[in-house]
Amino acid sequence: MRIRDLAPAEHDAAIALWHAAGLTRPWNDPRSDLDRALAGPSSTVLVALPDGGAGLLGTVMVGHDGHRGWVYYLAAVERGRGVGRALVAAAETWLAAHVPKVQLMVRAGNEGAAAFYARLGYERSEVTVWQRVIRDDPTCPPPTTLLG
């Protein structure tokens, strides 16, 4: 297996894998997430490919805010073959060049993912994640208003 950055011709295959893995949500456009991840130097999408072959075995989106790294969209075509483990290791290597720690979020009830990350040495963090949608929110002024 080899791991490298996602190529433009693989965008549709990556998104299809995310759908198949149940990682997408109707209110969150995965193509927009992909485009944003590839638009700047603080994030990327890594893919696992078979040695000497074509076709995605898995993906992971990785990025950082200058203090901590984040892992998103970890998906493998088949579980139990080491693809997820290899992608997490590659994501950690990518992040280690930029930040001292990595975090990720697991949806409530996804005990399979929680167990996978625990086996890799990740620990639950006593943090509550809060959010507010700032696009399409009538109470939030457009960015041009805030910037003058």
From TrEMBL:
InterPro entries assigned: Acyl_CoA_acyltransferase, Bact_Acetyltransf, GNAT_dom
Pfam families documented for this protein: Acetyltransf_1
GO molecular function: acyltransferase activity, transferring groups other than amino-acyl groups
Segments forming domain N-acetyltransferase: 1-147
Keywords for the protein's UniProt record, in alphabetical order: Acyltransferase, Transferase
Entry keyword Transferase: yes
Domain of life (superkingdom): Bacteria
NCBIfam families: PRK03624.1 (NF002959)
Protein name, UniProt field: N-acetyltransferase domain-containing protein
Origin organism lineage: Bacteria, Bacillati, Actinomycetota, Actinomycetes, Pseudonocardiales
